[in-house]
Amino acid sequence: MEEEIVTLTIDGETIKAKKGTTILEAAKHAGIDIPTLCFLKDINEVGDCRMCIVEVEGRRGFATSCIQTVEEGMVVHTHTPNVLEARRTVLDLIISNHAKDCLTCTRSGNCELQTLATKFNVLHVEYPGEMTKHKIDDKSPALVRDFNKCILCRRCVATCKNIQGIGAIDCINRGFESCISTVGDHSLNDVNCTFCGQCIEACPTGALHEKESIKEVWARLKDPESYVVAQTAPSIRVALGEEFGMDIGTNVAGKMVTALKRLGFDKVFDTNTGADFTIMEEANEFVERFKENNTLPMMTSCCPGWVRYIEENYPELLPHLSSCKSPHQMFGALIKSYYAKKENIDPSKIYVVSIMPCVAKKFEAIRPEMQNDGLYDVDGVITTRELSRMIKQANIEFTKLEDSKFDDPMGEATGAGAIFGTTGGVMEAALRTAQDILTGEDLEKIDFEAVRGGKGIKKATVNIAGKEIKVVAASGLKNARKILEEIKNGKADYQFVEIMACPGGCIMGGGQPIKSAKIRSEVDVRKLRANALYSIDEKSTIRKSHENPVLQKIYKDYLGKPGGELAHKLLHTHYEKREKYNFET
Amino acid sequence: MKTLEEIHEIREEKRKELDLRVNTKADTREKHILVCQGTGCTSSKSPEILENFRRILKEKNIENVRVIKTGCFGLCAKGPIVIIRPEDTFYAMVTPEDCEEIIQTHIVEGKRVERLLCKDIDGKIVNSLDELNFYKKQKRIALKNCGVINPEDIDEYIAFNGYKALERVLDVMSPEEVIEVISKSGLRGRGGAGFPTGKKWELTRASKGKQKYVVCNADEGDPGAFMDRSILEGDPHSVLEAMIIAGYSIGANKGYIYVRAEYPIAVKRLDIAIKQARDYGILGKNIFGSGFDFDIEIRLGAGAFVCGEETALLESIEGKRGQPRVKPPYPAESGLWGKPTLINNVETYANIAQIILKGADWFSSIGTEKSKGTKVFALGGNVNNIGLVEVPMGTTLREIVYDIGGGIPNGRDFKAAQTGGPSGGCIPKEHLDTPIDYESLKEIGSMMGSGGLIVMDDTKCMVSLAKFYLEFTVSESCGKCTPCRIGTKRMLEILENLCNGKGEEIDIYRLETLAKNIQKSSICGLGQSAPNPVLSTLNYFREEFKEHAIDKVCRTAECKALATIGIDEEKCKGCGLCQKHCPVNAIKGEGREKRVIDQSICIKCGTCIATCPFHAIN
Amino acid sequence: MEKENKQCDCKNKKDEFLEKLFEEYLPEKDNLIQMLNEVQEHYGYVPMHVQKELSEYLKIPMAEIYGVVTFYSRFSLEPQGKYKISVCLGTACFVKGSQKIMDRLTDRLKIGPGETTKDGLFTIEQTRCVGACGLAPVFTINGEVYGRASVQKLDQVLDELINKEKQNA
User: Fold this and answer.
1) Annotated active-site positions of A, please?
2) Is the pTM of this model over 0.90?
3) How is domain B462-551 classified at the architecture level of CATH?
4) B272, B254, B262: which is closest to B219 by C-alpha?
5) Is B564-618 a domain of CATH 3.30.70.20?
6) Is the Cβ of B452 closer than 8 Å to some Cβ of chain C?
7) CB of A581 within 8 Å of any CB in chain C?
8) Whole-angstrom Cα distance, residue B407 to residue B122?
9) At CA A232, angle to CA A231 and CA A236, rounded to 5?
10) Domains of chain B: which residue ranges?
11) ipTM score above 0.85
12) Fewer CB near the last or first residue (10 Å), C or N of chain A?
């Protein structure tokens, strides 16, 4: 079908646009910028904030440019004095009910409201008045809600409900008393929140942010008794640079290691190596299950948001979950056992800080199962954003740093470990190892294109050793639900399922640098970050986890066989049914 | 199930039987005692009256007298109302204790109970309904059956040509023809905005899609308006019939009536009506053998004014918070569950069957050039005849207030009238002769609205009135869009400051600017019209705003912070009425002495002002 | 006039009412408000555990249900007082002075609209038009309409109720 083209006028310019295009989009193509606030492309297109209003000739009242579509002969004015005054009034009203403590706000400098206020030269509030008051919810280990800073844009609600299919938060009350909250205004900790943190990424202000753990890390770094080890997840290196003005998808691994050293970490390890261990264990677990046709499909377990989700929503399917710990937990366990022994360090003095693209990892690290001999595998989890704040606090000029290498002997990671950060990556890495185990050969075909890319659900059939294995990689919890429903209803014929809670995988995690709605609507952030990971993989000399020499050495010297007794003790875990709503009714 | 023939038979038989309802000279030995069971009269014990009549008749073994429950007669101020037909005797303010006497004197002895006869404003006893000034200038189309038939008996509806229009539509008219008649009649939406009804039907018909819906907006939320409720309580089948016709015309098989849960009587009568219509095969499959199917479901609202806004209403039917959607797309294109949906309000539907039966020309001969037919108003406030009136479009406000409404009580002066409720505006004295139609009201800064018409006398403070409406809007704002959520709150705060003596002159300008911006930038009708009461009072009573802001004076003393209530020595006759009513005993004086207010005790409640028969207190 | 308050003590087991409710309504999202109306009618409020049951039955997150409950003024989260006094603040009543009645009521009971006295006896509500405009101003107590009301009339009724309760106690 041919696309219908309409001709319209925007600010005096004649513009052609496809039918169905919004006025906002059409204007953007014509190089005309219309301010927005509640708009978040493909996620929240509701027209609530009224910043994007424009004048359309012949229409009573203003048109909502983020929703309303172009029409033949339409005449649009985007910045008449009337429109500007109305926008200024709208902005004034929003600010009149917004906490104005920008100096002490985590989003200062990266706040969409602040940007607009600057743009509109808001030097005083024309209509001040009563402000809604909310108590701050910081009970959960992962997220903080400070809805005194909420502007009711509902981007978080749309993300939580429509993208993730969770609905932990929603709009409650009515009129001026409206606010975004949970059922009964309980803490996120006690409701069906999975701690994926996607709401943080969606929030234009500081109303939602991670529970900061920087203070403890600084304290440990200061403490001469502590042996502070950093490990960084695959996704950090391709996003951290953004916080220092570098292009999206720049690999800053070398600078990151240097910066961590400067901050005073005793050792800086690569969680990618942890990922290699995960693959060893998981691929072996899969091969075992596959051979015995035991509780298939097997589902990956490295995403803590996803694990919390299945524990709360589909406890009956928990046996399908791989018993493997996630890479940083495995790695933490190895640091405090193998590495401590090898280096002759008292494990109780070791303080492992995981730098993660994720806020759910903060919750994962304190799960009681994540301990060995009374010591937690990981002691502190900070996000990419928190690391950038530490670097800034230390006055390190990040962009000018020289590169350094991760510390050895836990530093050599494979390309398989690198792609863990993107949807489909765990699957691909596992398949590389599984096919070698199953065939007993060193196969050359290692790129599994079918599970790459940004689609929410990617299905593929791979042929290994004459056997067909059906796999699926899903990202975003709404997509996860679809797969789980299939399994629950006996309609799934997969053998291996990879799930990541965040759409796009860890590179788009809730702990990553926050991109404004404008950037999100113009740039495919996921693709740029993912490409950087695939490029690391491509450039790696070793691209299969089981071929990692460090790993082979540790299995040989210490762990024994994958899935063996010690491996199980250190590298595996268990799950349990969790109440979705954990409060007295 | 009834065949068409059976329905014709019912119509003929029943019509004969009910002739006495509309014909004072009806040839019958029967009498019907009609007892209003609308919400107004029900609130003052009319169900008990109904029961008493039935009991007494049974006890006395009186035959040929039937007690009928009816919908609202309109003159609620005189309720509970009892009318005896065929002689059309009008008893007002009847109590359950009066029943015995009415039966004995009127029914048994054939005399009238003089003390209960309704008196007009001038004190003249009225012999029948038609003699009342209240009814003289009215023309009843939408309310035609209200107070005439028993709303819980489908046969009575059928008797007065009920479902005849539907029969004609299904029998000989194409959907296009129906729409043409409605378009030609000039009927416009009675919910407030006045969109041409035929056009709406046409657009919904033209929208692509197999599944379409017909919705009746019965979420009458304008405080002080009860037109739709009275129609649903008095003549529910007229709405059902119109919805079926609408369904046939636009190509829908399913209808929803969204009605306030706060209207229990209306809901119950609708429920009964739907069941009866289903029993007769008028709702359901293959209606009248035409092959056309249609059914109707009731959906209850749960107390949110904004759900009267059509897209919020749709959200609510879908089980969600009633938050309006951005338009376009309009419901005609994308409505319930994204399907093309026709939404009309109760009163609009109540006109449909008669337009079909009597023709577009008949309907368009009533009213003004652009506003055809009649409009029902709920007349309330400081007016003598509080109640429900239906007048031809173009009737002036003066006629409604003075001729129909009987003027202002207590000899007070008319100050303003508010139409359109919290979305409308006030009409001052100088516009009393404005003909009431969509365009004229808009021109003077008000709007037709759904039909609330509140009269205010000169004891009312217009700043405080604006504040009252803003309080309403603020508490009913859904909270979705910024201007309405925060903006109306800020407007209210400014008004509160003005009323509390904390305002400044600049506040009037701030208020005005903010109001205009909210008007233009809000998502839905509620936000867009919320500033209207403020802008119109500002327009006509700016002086009062200035007095509040600059002089810190409220001339009516309604704003307590700005009032000192004093008694005019010259006017005071020493009757002591104010003293008697003062809740805090702040008024001193004995016997025929002129009264004085002790300012240290006075709480400025204003009761004395209202009670003084000599207007001596200000 | 006295209303029995069905305090729900069936924390974990589904009571008969809910079972019937689930029989009557299909688990479809658009039934939520209808079901909540019945719940409100039955219990006098919408208990949290019922919201949880509804969430499971209709597959709607609790936050959304809570959002709906807090949106519509007919639904309440707390049990209502034995006497629910509603003052009509519709325009017709307002113009006739109903605000004074409301002021008097809140003043006497020391609670605001929407609140319930500590002893659980009184709940004050403001309503917008009960439809008895001909009797304006009006207030209602548990649905019974008191028309052509005044501060004095309110005082009188309130005194009677308070005295009655004192005697009962």
Assistant:
1) 282, 285, 302, 322, 361, 364, 369, 506
2) yes
3) Up-down Bundle (1.20)
4) B262
5) yes
6) yes
7) yes
8) 11
9) 170
10) 18-132, 161-363, 374-457, 462-551, 564-618
11) yes
12) N
